[in-house]
Amino acid sequence: PADSRGAGATPRSVGETPELDVEAHSWGVYVRHKLQHVCCLEAVVDTEVIDDQVIISEVLRGDPCRCLCWSTLETRIGLRPGAYELTVNLYDADSEDMALLTWIEVEGSY
Predict the structure, then answer these.
(1) Whole-angstrom distance between the N-terminal and C-terminal Cα of the chain?
(2) Taking the CB of residue 35, how many other CB atoms lie within 10 A of it?
(3) How far apart (Å, rounded) are the C-alpha atoms in residues 53 and 94?
């Protein structure tokens, strides 16, 4: 992914499934989440960094339609070098799912 903060950096994929990809960069972390959901919903992404924990909360809200759609949510978080526990949570009107729990290592300078 192109990102001015990551220019010249070599991304390292640290976790990958068909729907969720995590890349550690010298500037932080990039997360791409491809998900299927009912249509007509708005996605809101919130991030929080507490010490060595990075929490990404993806919230789908609105009035759902009677069809299915695919969306790709992309999140970039600037982090200082170090090891972090990364959690991605997905919330909708009916459920809360932990989509990912993993450790990432950010090397280099911020």
Answers:
(1) 17
(2) 18
(3) 26
CA distances from 50 to 26, 34, 107 (A): 19, 25, 18
Give the global pTM. Answer: 0.78
Burial-class residue 28 by CB neighbours within 10 Å (0-12, 13-18, 19+).
buried
Burial letters 40-66, b for 16+ CB under 10 A, else e: ebebeeeeeeeeeebebebbbeeebee
CB 99 within 8 A of CB 22: no
- In tens, the pLDDT along 63-104 reads 999 999 999 999 999 999 999 999 999 998 777 788 889 999
